[in-house]
Specification:
Blueprint (H helix, E strand, L loop, with lengths): L1 H23 L3 H11 L1 H4 L8 H6 L9 H4 L3 H9 L13 H4 L2 H11 L13 H16 L8 H5 L10 H4 L4 H10 L14 H14 L2
Bound molecules: heme C (2 copies).
Length: 212
């Protein structure tokens, strides 16, 4: 019996540790998709509150690019997004806390906190970018952009880590688009011709979001 209770304790400890870990890893990429699906209609693409429904209903969605939101801690912003609002609230800001699980509130908050970052001005459809990335780039750059894809390991080539913000900040938008279109060095292929110009921007915008 003693054995069993030790086992049960370990299992619950592991479960707790995994849950805590899941919360510590906000995913702004999922967040950007949630934002596109649920928030753009009111808050607009750039977050300043000029979505089409805002005009139609004459409501004033908060300008999410303001310092008072951008300077918030991630958890606090997520709590604000998920905060309770009465159904009859004339502002129409939905009560996201009842619709989205906590991890998703964290993910969308993580995206909102990246909206004003100067290195994320590239306009591209990150949802399409993700599909392109998985198909054309992950084999070398790795699923999460760390440069550890299977093909890269097999042909023994090294490349930068897209998740390192300090590295990626040195790469301007122009350079990013140019490298993807025209290739670089011996192994980074030129994608122009295979991908349309729009698709290059989509995948570039997705690569940008990978930087933490
Ligand atoms: C139907 C329109 C609508 C949608 C959809 C919507 N919002 Fe809002 N939101 C508003 C309005 C209007 C306000 C301003 C509310 C106020 O003045 O009290 C607001 C306020 C906010 C605030 C500030 C809250 C505060 O107390 O200061 C945040 C943060 C926010 N929205 C985030 C989001 C996010 C993230 C999404 C998508 C998951 C979203 N909103 C979707 C209309 C909307
Ligand atoms: C066959 C492997 C391979 C594939 C597939 C590949 N890359 Fe690369 N990529 C590389 C290598 C190797 C480098 C490093 C080149 C160098 O620095 O000489 C690189 C460099 C880059 C850089 C430059 C980063 C910097 O720090 O300058 C970007 C951006 C990039 N790749 C994006 C992409 C995208 C987007 C795709 C998919 C459309 C893709 N790559 C597909 C191998 C690959």
């Amino acid at each position: 019996m003693k054995h069993l209770s030790w086992f049960v304790t370990m299992i619950s400890f592991l479960a707790l540790a995994t849950a805590a870990n899941a919360q510590e890893q906000p995913n702004p990429i999922t967040g950007s998709h949630l934002y596109v699906s649920y928030c753009i209609v009111c808050h607009g693409k750039d977050g300043t509150g000029k979505g089409p429904l805002a005009f139609k209903r004459h409501i004033k969605p908060a300008d999410l690019t303001q310092a008072k939101y951008q300077n918030k801690e991630l958890e606090d912003l997520a709590a604000l997004i998920g905060g309770y609002r009465p159904m009859e609230d004339a502002t129409l800001m939905p009560n996201w806390g009842v619709a989205l699980p906590k991890e998703e509130l964290i993910d969308v908050a993580a995206y909102v906190l990246r909206m004003t970052r100067k290195d994320l001005k590239l306009i591209g459809d990150t949802r399409r970018g993700r599909v392109i990335y998985k198909g054309a780039c992950a084999s070398c750059h790795g699923r999460f952009g760390k440069g550890d894809g299977l093909l890269a390991q097999l042909i023994r080539v090294e490349m930068g880590d897209f998740t390192k913000r300090t590295d990626m900040e040195g790469v301007t938008d122009e350079k990013l688009v140019k490298v993807i279109s025209e290739g670089k060095g011996e192994f980074m292929p030129a994608w122009a011709g295979t991908l349309s110009n729009d698709e290059v921007y989509d995948v570039a915008a997705y690569v940008r979001l990978m930087a933490k």
